[in-house]
Write a structure and sequence with these properties.
alpha/beta; globular; single chain; Rossmann fold; 34% helix
Length: 201
C-alpha cells in the first residue's frame, strides 16, 4: 500500500490505482527522490506540477512536505478519480485546498497554461510506451512554465535512453534504482540546484 512518507500527513495511506496504464512510483524511489529534493530546499512554499500523475502520490507528498500549491494532471478516468480522493485527503489534513486535480492530457494542459503559470518543481512519470520524441515535446512545452531555480524530475525505465532536453532545460543529475531511473533537470540559467548537488556529493 502506498503512503505519504513524511510531513504534515506522514504515514497516511493513499488510495492506489488498479487496472489502468499507470505505473506507481515505489516507496523506495519516492523516499530517495524526496530526500534529494529536501536537500535542494525547493519544496517549502513551492508550486508543484505532477504530470501523468497516476494516483497523485508525488504531488500529495509534496503538499505534505510544505508545497504551497500542487497541480495533478491525469487523463485516465480511474486514475483521475483516485487523484481526487488523495487530493481531498491531504486538503483535509492541511485545512486548505493545496492540491488541485486536472483531468486532461498533459499536452493540452500545458498548451492552456500559455505563459500564465509558473512552477518550482515538476514531476513527469509518463507510461513507458510514451516514446522519446513525444516526451521531448512535452518537456519543450513545459520549459517556459518553470521559475528560475526550478527542478524537473523525469521517471523512466532504467533501460530507456536519456530524455531529449529542449533548449532552456538541462540535466544536472540522474540516479538508477533497479528498473527505474530518475533524471533531474533545471532551467539552463539556474545555479542553485547545482550548488546543492555539489554539497550533497
Amino acid at each position: 500500500m502506498s503512503r505519504i512518507v513524511a510531513g504534515a500527513a506522514g504515514g497516511t495511506p493513499l488510495a492506489n490505482v488498479s487496472g489502468s496504464l499507470t505505473r506507481p512510483t515505489t516507496d523506495r524511489v519516492k523516499e530517495a527522490l524526496f530526500s534529494r529534493l529536501d536537500a535542494f530546499n525547493v519544496l517549502g512554499g513551492a508550486r508543484v506540477l505532477d504530470l501523468y500523475a497516476g494516483s497523485g502520490a508525488l504531488g500529495v507528498e509534496s503538499a505534505s512536505r510544505g508545497a504551497e500549491a500542487v497541480d495533478l494532471v491525469e487523463f485516465d478516468a480511474k486514475a483521475s478519480a483516485v487523484c481526487q480522493r488523495n487530493a481531498d485527503l491531504i486538503n483535509g489534513v492541511l485545512g486548505r485546498k493545496a492540491v488541485t486535480v486536472h483531468r486532461s492530457k498533459v499536452e493540452s494542459f500545458l498548451d492552456r497554461a500559455a505563459g500564465e503559470a509558473k512552477w518550482d518543481v515538476a514531476f513527469l512519470d509518463p507510461p513507458y510506451p510514451l516514446d522519446e520524441p513525444a516526451l521531448a515535446s512535452v518537456l519543450e512545452k513545459l520549459a517556459p512554465h518553470l521559475n528560475d531555480g526550478a527542478v524537473v524530475v523525469v521517471e523512466r525505465s532504467s533501460r530507456a535512453a536519456e530524455p531529449g532536453w529542449p533548449e532552456g532545460l538541462e540535466r544536472f543529475a540522474d540516479k538508477k534504482y533497479g528498473e527505474t531511473r530518475l533524471w533531474y533537470a533545471e532551467p539552463s540559467s539556474g545555479q542553485d540546484v547545482d550548488l546543492a548537488l555539489e554539497a550533497e556529493d
